[in-house]
Amino acid sequence: MAVGLGMVLALIGYLAVRYVHSTLVEQCTAHGTEGTTVTLDLDQAANAATIAAVATARGLPQRAVTVALATAMQESKLRDIDYGDRDSLGLFQQRPSQGWGTPAQVLDPVHASAKFYDALVKVPDYLSLPVTVAAQKVQHSGYPEAYAQHEQDATALAAALAGHEGAALSCQVRSVGTPGSARTGGTAVTAEVRREFGTDLVTDPPPAATTEITYQATDTTTGWALALWLVCHATKLHIASVDFEDREWNSSSSDKSWTSRTASSAPTGEVIARLAPAKA
After folding, report:
1. For residue 197, which phi and psi values (nearest 5 degrees)?
2. What is the Cα–Cα distance from 9 to 212, expressed in whole angstroms?
3. How many CA atoms lie within 13 A of 215 on its CB side?
4. Which of 195, 202, 229 is nearest to 217 (CA)?
5. Phi, psi values for residue 145, rounded to 5°
6. Are 215 and 193 spatial neighbours (Cβ–Cβ below 8 Å)?
7. Which residues are CB-neighbours of 70 under 8 A, at least 6 positions away?
8. What does the buried/exposed string (b/e) look like for 159-181 if buried means 16 or more CB atoms within 10 Å of the residue's CB?
9. Backbone angles phi, psi at 85, to 5 degrees
10. How many CB atoms lie within 10 A of CB 228?
11. Alpha-carbon distances, residue 146 vs 38, 132, 141 (angstroms)
12. In tens digits, what is the pLDDT along the chain, a chain of 280 residues?
């Protein structure tokens, strides 16, 4: 009788977990220090994380990320759209005919972000300009004041994604899926980290079929920037969990955000990503 009751309770618990995950709203939320809350869907969050990562790779300050995010919020709502005014495309609505790159290039968030920063750093004193002025000097928009409405959200999001606020952003996901092959395992994740953050975080690529990758960040800020980037890209890259310092994000309990864990004996700065196992 007791065994039967135990099985029933276990089944109820299992069904409850399945129900929670099936009704979970997939989204990412960043919390600013001044009470600002920014909520994005998974695609928007992945694009925002890429914009921040490209800045990190270039050693650019948080203010540059704020300007870039405010611009992309206005131009595309942080979506990599394949349409726009005349030949405008992508996150920043860059025009191939105006020298921003080929259509394929401006639809690549990494290329688009890099080209935006190339132009931004040429703006004299851009760090001291109002966000909407700095953005306009790059974009030459017909609506030059439009970027200002996104400054508060962009500031909070930039602080989080640049790694300055620790576990200030988390994502809720229903599932990170299973990679179709070993090629979408460790090698593919590390290749994407290299492409967005540069090579400083990675020495030798891990085996393709690995389910755990360790990255060595140069400092805590960079470590959190990478950890949050991994969470924002979890569904695309099949990342089951992320550990950094004494915090863990787990896709199977993502509604709990980052949870505390016993600090490991791993060297300071190690970001650990555990992947869903690839199909045989």
Report:
1. -100, -10
2. 33
3. 32
4. 202
5. -90, -5
6. yes
7. 131, 132, 135, 147, 148, 150, 151, 153, 154
8. bbbbbbbbbbbbbbbebbbebee
9. -65, 130
10. 33
11. 18, 7, 9
12. 455 665 545 454 444 444 445 678 999 999 998 899 999 999 999 999 999 999 999 999 999 999 999 999 999 999 999 999 999 999 999 999 999 999 999 999 999 999 999 999 999 999 999 999 999 999 999 988 999 999 999 999 999 999 999 999 999 999 998 876 655 577 888 889 999 998 777 655 566 567 888 998 989 999 999 999 999 999 999 999 999 999 999 999 999 999 998 766 556 789 999 998 876 6
* Encoded tokens for 123: 């703006």
Paired residues of 274 in beta bridges: 212, 241
What order do you get walking across the sheet with 247-250 strand by strand? 212-216, 270-275, 239-244, 247-250, 259-260
CB distance 233 to 221 below 8 Å:
no
Burial bucket for residue 211 (CB in 10 Å: 0-12, 13-18, 19+): middle
Contacts within 8 Å (CB) and 24+ apart, 79-87: 79/43, 79/44, 79/47, 80/43, 80/47, 80/107, 80/109, 82/107
CB-hemisphere CA count at 13 Å for 194?
12
**Cα 121 from Cα 225, distance rounded (Å):** 21
In what helix (H) or strand (E) does residue 139 lie, and over which residues does it extend? helix 131-139
Number of continuous H segments (helices) and E segments (strands) in the chain:
10, 8
Which are the contacts of 212, defined by CB distance < 8 A and separation ≥ 6? 186, 272, 273, 274, 275
